[in-house]
Amino acid sequence: MRHFVPAMGMALSLLLPLSAHADGSYLKIGAGQSRYSFAGDSESKTGWLLAYGAALDKTWGIEGGYVTFGRLGGLEDLQGNPLTVQTRALYLAGTASIPLGQSFSLYGKLGAAAKRFSGGGDSETRYSPLLGVGATLNLGPQWGLALEYANYGKSDGLRLSQTSLSVLYAF
Fold it and tell me: pTM for the full model?
């Protein structure tokens, strides 16, 4: 946790000055299905996300967020004791959007994620690239919905991804 909080502060310090020059900022809150994949086996859990983003122009933007992937149980530590792992991530990404009409657009994002694995009294942070694609439906001048798939990379053979449905509020 020592390194996780400073990473969040650094991400916000990079994001906020850029958003001052942005056309529109938004807050995104969502929930969805997280997938833990390891050695050909996978398990799904319920996760959620909270993100802040800003459009730098009609195409380009930035987004930073916090994601939880749900608790993964049914594991054992090296001594055979039951173990539950909680995984969460902070990310910072550049975004590109393609409008397909007045209220619908497709987007992609590319960035980096700091993933925090906690369980059995231990914790570890791993860094990996982030790649995501999605679609946004504007419901009005301030509200929208986003459906997104994001791949949070692979660390020590474990790949994390999340498919989520989010509510957007623009301000």
Answer: 0.83
